[in-house]
Amino acid sequence: IVTFAAMAPRFIIPPIAGYLADRFNRKHVLATVYWLNTGTTVLLAGLAFANVLELWHLMVLSVLNGSARTFQMTSTAALVPNLVPRDRLLNAVSLNTATQQGSRLFGPGLIAPMLIFYGPDAAFMLSAGFYALGLIMVTRIQTHSTGDVRAGTSVLASLGSAAMVVYQNPKLRVLFIIVAMHCSMTMSFESMLPIFSRDVLGSGSVGVSYLMMSVGAGGLASALLIAG
């Protein structure tokens, strides 16, 4: 349920996130997102520390975090091409993916011992610290990056224009379908990891951390291979 709450915004918010990433300075969008993620994670740590954390808290904060994550991914993907020369774009995109997969590899490795020795509240605070570090790094970006959206253009009009571009380009159509199938079907395995770790491996939350590390290791290796 919590995984669904975190993933559901990715099916609804991307059109709005894409519009805002084109309408406003992407640096400012990212800074707002990191502020939100830092705040919600600190709140989550506080609830866990006070031992009052309930399922509905997790669901609400997961929706907020998942929504912010959608804005973060969209704005970052749109910002990267404005930070590097065109001939370095493939490497930049691959390395950006490598950082995401690297966090899946090294993040759970840091979280697992904290869950064992200090509990979930300490793990949440560590996560909040990394979000705060991300906020600091975003504020250091000097490039002003926006899309080509005229003032007064509505979200629906912008979305319609994007849909026409995809429809008129066969390669984009195929890519769009592949990505949609991957995100809706393949990525659902993440919701099964806690149950698999508990019922099959008998490892609980620590086992989930190690399973996510293996996913991150494969993703990181692939991203570095593409980056050359």
Automatic annotation (TrEMBL):
Q: Membrane-spanning regions, if any?
A: 33-53, 115-137, 174-196, 208-227
Question: In the UniProt record, which is one GO cellular component term?
Answer: plasma membrane
> Which InterPro entries does this chain map to?
MFS, MFS_dom, MFS_trans_sf
Q: Which GO terms describe its molecular function?
A: transmembrane transporter activity
Pfam families per the UniProt record, alphabetical: MFS_1 (PF07690)
Q: List the PROSITE patterns hit by this protein, alphabetically.
A: MFS
Location in the cell reads: Cell membrane
User: Keyword set for this entry?
Assistant: Cell membrane, Membrane, Transmembrane, Transmembrane helix
For the Major facilitator superfamily (MFS) profile domain, which residue ranges apply? 1-228
Keyword Nucleus set for record: no
Question: How is the protein disposed in the membrane?
Answer: Multi-pass membrane protein
Main subcellular localisation: membrane
Q: What is this protein called?
A: Major facilitator superfamily (MFS) profile domain-containing protein
